Amino acid sequence: MAQNAVEKTPLTLLGLGAMGTALARAWLAAGHQVTVWNRTPGRAAPLVAEGAVLAESAAAAVAANSLVVLCLLDEASVEEVLAGTEPAGKDLVNLTTGTPAEARARAAWASARDARCLDGGIMAVPPMIGVPASGAYVFYSGSHELFTRHRETLAVPAGTTWTGTDPGHAALHDVALLSAMYGMFAGTAHAFALIRGEDIDPVAFAPLLADWLTAMAPAVHRTAERLKSGDLTGDVVSDLAMQTAGVPTFLGTAEQQGVSPELLSPYFALMRRRLAEGGGGEDLAGLIDLLRRAPGTAA
Ligand code: FVH
Predict the structure, then answer these.
(1) Atom 44, ligand 1: which residue's CA is nearest?
(2) Where do the 6-phosphogluconate dehydrogenase NADP-binding domain residues begin and end (predicted)?
């Protein structure tokens, strides 16, 4: 090693799917020694050719290093993989997508076994990993000591965003952002369905749609300010009464184009409900609390 060179933290990575492979590659490229394990060992071959060490079992992989990263399909696979391992004294970083409750339970599980645990929610797709300009980052929550100790290593594949010591908060941020993304995908699907069958080039239509969504995105800041202040009616630009009056136009257009309104109808139902409650002078922030139920009762 060159004089003054800082030794990179060696780590273990459990799970070599599309995301796990991208993570392993980024750490290898940055000079980390990476021990890998995957249920289907053949998936490790390209990484071994790039310098990774393949462990013969999950238990051997966990034993190999203090820092153990998991990137598996879901919590059930994490449960299965960790079952035969010895986590005592380990720093576990779980980048598997899961619910806040699963993250909290996993943190309690680790703590009961003398291990530390950090939960992570990846805000990226595999090609963005290890590409600093891509905007990829990971939400982290749980042990702040662990986060601080390994921050430099964790920052190699993607940026790091701390969300607090409640182990469930990384998952909650992750799922909240992804839920908004699915809302956008749903609206996009409806828009393309409307123009399909007409002499409109979807490729020419796409930039119009993307630019419109971009122009509307700052509305999230106004919504947040209203939720914080409780003021739902001050400086409203497009009030609920006006927007609800437009609902028949949206439903009529869908019908004329032979498109099911099933993606939009639930939102229109909320708008009509809030209007009936007297919220006509508000903007759409007034719909948010209509969605809230006692935890655990949502379908
Ligand atoms: N890929 C993406 O776009 C998203 C981006 C945001 C974050 N997600 C989450 O990352 C986790 C891993 O996702 P992935 O893309 O690597 O997923 P797959 O390519 O499907 O690989 C799944 C790995 O999990 C292993 N696995 C599944 N079940 C088990 C099990 N019962 N026991 C042991 N391992 C299991 C699987 O092994 P194998 O099929 O190769 O043997 C893969 O290594 C995920 O939470 C995303 O939500 C990705």
Answers:
(1) 73
(2) 12-156
Does the domain at residues 173-291 carry the CATH identifier 3.50.50.100? Answer: no
Reading the block at residue 74, the tokens are: 């879901």
Residue with tokens 């933290």: 9
- State pLDDT tens for residues 190-221: 999 999 999 999 999 999 999 999 999 999 99
Cβ of 40 closer than 6 Å to ligand 1, yes or no, is yes
Partner residues linked to 37 by β-bridges = 14
In this structure, CATH architecture of domain 6-165:
3-Layer(aba) Sandwich (3.40)
What is the overall mean pLDDT for the chain? 96
List phi, psi (to 5°) of 119: -105, 145
Q: Are 259 and 194 in contact (CB under 8 A)?
A: yes
Q: Which residue ranges does the chain devote to CATH 1.10.1040.10?
A: 173-291
Q: Is the CB of 128 within 6 Å of ligand 1?
A: no
| C-alpha of residue 76 to centroid of ligand 1, in Å | 11
Q: Is 96 in the pocket of ligand 1 (CB under 6 A)?
A: yes
pTM of the model: 0.94
